[in-house]
Amino acid sequence: MNPNRVLLAMSGGVDSSACAVLLREQGYDVTGLVLKMSPAHEQTVADAQAAADGAGIPLLVRDMTAAFEREVVSYFVDEYARGRTPNPCVLCNPKLKFKALLDAANEEGCAYLATGHYAGLRREGAHTLLTRGEDPARDQSYMLCRLGQNVLSRLIFPLAAMPKAAVRAVAARAGLSCASKPDSQEICFIPDNDYARFIEDRLGKSAPGEFISPEGRPCGTHQGIIRYTVGQRKGLGIALGRPVFVRRLSPAENRVYLADAQDAYEEEILLSDLSETFPGAVRDGMEVSVKIRSRATPAKARLSREGELWRVRFAEPQRAPAPGQTAAIYDGDVVLGGGFIE
């Protein structure tokens, strides 16, 4: 492996484009890689090529459409059909995106991988620790919580300590057209963000069913299980004279169960398929902090192992943890791993 060669994940956005500029300024020999994950990524590939040309680096293109459909899209659709709330990015990162980056880096003789994520890395002894980004508002460590040492040990995050304005300034200084490009907010394979239509295109029309009030009585008609998530308050289309939220989804009954706002909080959750960022990171009885969604504030908790599952008991109850979502586990600023909320 050439210690001067870096393989950079490219998307055509300002973050990865600024990374290319910064890495070249630091003397690295940079090659870009863009992954075509779905038909919706045609523009991503074109934007990445334009950004690579502007930054003066070669670009590799890998077509991951079949694997992405099998491993991520099918998972996304199936989870919603089961009344769960999936997070496709958390699953895609270790299964596809970073695996493809690592494979390509090995093929190209690149010692390092780089991405435009806002997160930190710290080398301690035999381990490379994944840490939260310096700006809590932009921290993306939650999305990376299932990466292991095979990837983390070779990663570089050029933007780890940079505010967004400074990143855009780097791209503008290099004359890149993406300098003013807005950040993407939608799911990458659903550009219009209409996930219900996307799912119905694959599974057929979602049948209406009953809303069940906190008192246990039918109180209205929902428009299909896939259109709701646990914790949802807005857009329910019912009026009970007081705030309510989605407490539980039952695909078997085709019912959406509601609860009063004061009942939104849970003292504990169970996690399945726990993944660690380094061996032995998560231990029975640990005091940790846990994020139950990407924009949640880390909450103090204690872990206990129960067979293949892990119980997370919070110091203070947390609002509406959603089955299917990822819970990321932290020790201070260090990411220990993550599991799926059951």
Describe what this molecule looks like in 3D.
The protein is α/β, with parallel strands linked by helices and 342 residues long. The chain is built from 7 helices and 17 strands. The chain has helices at 14-25, 42-55, 65-81, 88-108, 149-152, 164-173, 195-203; strands at 2-9, 29-36, 59-63, 110-114, 120-124, 127-131, 155-156, 209-212, 218-222, 244-250, 255-260, 265-276, 287-291, 299-306, 309-319, 326-331, 334-341. A 6-stranded antiparallel barrel has the order 12-15-14-13-16-17. Strands 3-2-1-4-7 form a 5-stranded parallel β-sheet, with helices on both faces. Strand 2, helix 2 (42-55) and strand 3 form a beta-alpha-beta unit. Helix 1 (14-25) crosses helix 6 and helix 3 runs antiparallel to helix 4 (88-108). The longest helix has 21 residues, at 88-108. The model has no long low-confidence stretch (mean pLDDT 93).
Q: Calculate the mean pLDDT score and round it.
A: 93
In whole angstroms, how far apart are the ends? 42 Å
Kindly report the oligomeric state of this protein.
single chain
- Tertiary shape: globular
* Tally of helical runs: 7
